[in-house]
Structure formats: structure tokens, C-alpha cells
Amino acid sequence: MPRPARARLASPTDAELGPVRPVEQGTLLASLSTIIHWADSHEVRAEMMHAAGFPIPDVTLFLVVNHLAHRGALRPTELARMLGTGPSNVTKITHRLHEAGLVLRTADPDDDRSVLIALSPVGRVIGRRILDHVADRVDAIVDTWPADEREALRRMLARLADAAIADGYRPAPHA
């Protein structure tokens, strides 16, 4: 795409170029934001896909397998909510994953009218690789920390996760 003509560009003096709300380094918000943006980055996802031997170069499909690996079988509506998309898109995504041999559609034992999307045996192997790789990465990051600091971090993060759930975040069922 060609660059807009100079006359249509705003002057750098007229544009606010910094963040809307600067975050002070070292604060809880800054640390959480850094971790979230790191984990959500294209580079980290691409590395995880490669390390897990993910057979399809599609981040959305990878995210579905990742969700299923973490949470177990899910209803398509739950997947749609997690991905921020609609049910028809989830149908297309699960069809592609099914064609690749990574997921199965199965009856929901709790509701005769519903189906669940579950990892196939091959999908479970790849899901295990994803989870193992993430665990290895986190372990490597804190490997040089003293054991008591690693344990304190584990306890505090568990407490933060519990508080997020109490505040209204609901992880998917079947976890």
C-alpha cells in the first residue's frame, strides 16, 4: 500500500505519539502487561507452534488446540466466546482441525442436544507438546531464582487467579 501524500499526514506536533496512559515501570500493571503482551506475541506463538510440531501455519487453529489442551473438550459456543468470534467461524475452524486429524466432535454427556469439540489422539499429543513447551519456557525463565522466591511467585499468582475468578472472570467449564 503506498504511503499517503505528505499533505494528508498529520504533523508530528499535532499527533500524540506516546501511550494514552503511560504505565510506570515496576508496577504490578506494568509487569502484568509485559507478561501478557509477551505471551500473546506473534513471536512466542510462532515458536510454540514450531516447538510443538503444529502441522498448520494458522495461529487461530493453534489457539483452539491450546484451549482444548488446557481446558479439555468444549462446546463450540464456549470456543467462540474464548476466541471472540461467532459460531459459524468456529464451525469452519473445527472443520479444518478435524480434516487435519487434530479434533473430534463428540456427544456432550451432560446435554443430549449438544456436542463437544475434543482433541483427537494426535491432537492430544500436540497439546501435550504445547503444554510441556510452555512449562519448560516458564521454568527456564525462573530457573536461577531461589526456590523460596519461585514458591512465593506461584502462591501470589494462584491468589491473583483466584481473585480474577471471584471478580467475574469465568474459565470455561470442563476444566
UniProtKB/TrEMBL annotation:
<dbReference type="InterPro" id="IPR000835">
    <property type="entry name" value="HTH_MarR-typ"/>
</dbReference>
<dbReference type="InterPro" id="IPR039422">
    <property type="entry name" value="MarR/SlyA-like"/>
</dbReference>
<dbReference type="Pfam" id="PF01047">
    <property type="entry name" value="MarR"/>
</dbReference>
<feature type="domain" description="HTH marR-type">
    <location>
        <begin position="25"/>
        <end position="162"/>
    </location>
</feature>
<dbReference type="GO" id="GO:0006950">
    <property type="term" value="P:response to stress"/>
</dbReference>
<dbReference type="InterPro" id="IPR036388">
    <property type="entry name" value="WH-like_DNA-bd_sf"/>
</dbReference>
<dbReference type="InterPro" id="IPR036390">
    <property type="entry name" value="WH_DNA-bd_sf"/>
</dbReference>
<dbReference type="GO" id="GO:0003700">
    <property type="term" value="F:DNA-binding transcription factor activity"/>
</dbReference>
<protein>
    <recommendedName>
        <fullName>HTH marR-type domain-containing protein</fullName>
    </recommendedName>
</protein>
